[in-house]
């Protein structure tokens, strides 16, 4: 699993020097992946005429290897809400919270009107 994270998300293996840290990351990834799959399954099962009342904004980096071909899948996100937006930043990889906190903060400020 850690090899997959390094190869596909840009995770720096040197950032996880101890076996305990690698184990914690693997456990967190498993939990997050399972929760994500459950949430997506529930959202995907929603009837098309019952969108969420809240807006959805999808934030991506153009160089995120996991988001290649995202244009083909936008309709899946857009159908979930009455208000959908997508913002793509040129670089930042898969971990925008670590690589582009400025971009994320700007998008949150825009979303809340500040």
What does this structure look like?
The protein has 114 residues and is mainly α. It folds into 2 domains: 1-45; 49-114, no CATH class. Helices cover 48% and strands 11% of the residues. It is built from 5 helices and 2 strands; from the N terminus they run ααβαβαα. It has helices at 2-9, 19-44, 74-78, 96-99, 101-112, and strands at residues 56-61, 84-89. Strands 1-2 form a two-stranded parallel sheet. α3 (74-78) links the parallel β1 and β2. The radius of gyration is 16 Å and the shape is globular. It starts with a helix and ends with a helix. The model has no long low-confidence stretch (mean pLDDT 85).
How many strands? 2
Question: Strand order, biggest sheet?
Answer: 1-2
Supply the number of structural domains: 2
Distance between the termini: 40 Å
Number of helices: 5
Low-confidence stretches: none
The helix fraction, in percent, is: 40-55%
Mean pLDDT rating = 85
| Major sheet | 2 strands, parallel
The helix-strand sequence is HHEHEHH
